[in-house]
Amino acid sequence: MAKGKDVRVTVILECTSCVRNEVNGVSRGISRYITQKNRHNTPNRLELRKFCPYCYKYMIHGEIKK
C-alpha cells in the first residue's frame, strides 16, 4: 500500500497570538501542539482553541506547514 495517500495526517498547531506578540524582537516562546486530522473531512487548515502556557489563556492555534 502507498504511504503517500493516508487519510489521517499529522499536523502541528501553533499559537497565533505568540507569533505576533514579540516584544523588541524577542519572544518568550511559541506554544505548539501535535495532533491528527482526517484529510477528507477537513481539507482546509485546522484551527482549534487550545491553552497557551505563554499567554496564560485559551487562544486560537492554527495549523502550520511542517
TrEMBL record:
GO cellular component, one term: ribonucleoprotein complex
Source organism (scientific name): Cerbera manghas
Gene transcribed to yield this protein: rpl33
Protein name per Swiss-Prot or TrEMBL: Large ribosomal subunit protein bL33c
Pfam families cross-referenced by the UniProt entry: Ribosomal_L33
Stored HAMAP family: Ribosomal_bL33 (MF_00294)
Family: Belongs to the bacterial ribosomal protein bL33 family.
Biological process, per Gene Ontology: translation
The organism's place on the tree of life at top rank: Eukaryota
Subcellular location: Plastid, Chloroplast
InterPro entries assigned to the protein according to its UniProt record, in alphabetical order: Ribosomal_bL33 (IPR001705), Ribosomal_bL33_CS (IPR018264), Ribosomal_bL33_sf (IPR038584), Ribosomal_zn-bd (IPR011332)
GO-annotated molecular function: structural constituent of ribosome
UniProt keyword list: Chloroplast, Plastid, Ribonucleoprotein, Ribosomal protein
Keyword presence, Transcription regulation: no
